[in-house]
């Protein structure tokens, strides 16, 4: 691995191990997921000036008024998404810098990821390419449309909060599929787990969260 990916000091694998210990204390149990979190260099996803803080449990700015989600929430959402086993087709809305994508990629067969801000998507692509993660398709678009050509999806994970769950995303869930999505206004959001069943959609409210708003259109 090259020096940038490997990290040193505050970005070394020892720092990542400490982050993983913290995640365990916070209740994350999935060993495969914890292994991926221990081996994924989160520091390459943030600006160089913030690298030394990249393993703290906090959201950090990634430019364009957006943030990289805190490690705990990435772990939590991934763990719940995969709690019934490996998924073959996952849709991600809100690629951002690509950290959540990097954590999911080794744990699922294929990811379709959509981001509305072009320069962020480009950065994400470069980072994920550097990590040699190839099972990812990218789209620059308003994720409110989902990715109908590739539907249905066994899993959908959304990293920005709409006021209500977009109908098009519900329609693109496979039978038995699961969607994790923060829902609500700026200061009051809940993480929802939506499951599609034969008789409709089941909603479970998991916990209060704080995501950037889900915006329409692209730039
Ligand atoms: N997954 C990222 C989180 C990025 S923050 C991580 O691992 O840290 C959320 C992202 O959602 C931002 O990049 C924002 O531009 C994007 N976003 C917001 N509304 C969107 C929409 N309608 N379609 C696609 N992306 C959207």
Can you offer a commentary on this structure?
Helices cover 28% and strands 28% of the residues. It is built from seven helices and nine strands; from the N terminus they run H-H-H-E-E-H-E-H-E-H-E-E-H-E-E-E. It is an alpha/beta fold. The termini are far apart. The model has no long low-confidence stretch (mean pLDDT 96). Strands 5-4-3-6-7-8-9 form a seven-stranded mixed β-sheet. The protein has one domain (3-209): Vaccinia Virus protein VP39 (Rossmann fold, 3-Layer(aba) Sandwich). Helix 2 packs antiparallel against helix 3. The chain is globular and about 50 Å long. It binds S-adenosyl-L-homocysteine.
Q: What's the CATH C level? A: Alpha Beta
| Helix vs. strand class | alpha/beta
Number of strands: 9
What overall form do the CA principal axes indicate? globular
Q: Report strand order across the widest sheet.
A: 5-4-3-6-7-8-9
Q: What is the name of the CATH topology?
A: Rossmann fold
What is the CA-atom radius of gyration, in angstroms? 16 Å
In whole angstroms, the N-to-C terminal distance is: 34 Å
Order of helices and strands: HHHEEHEHEHEEHEEE
What is the domain total for the residues?
1
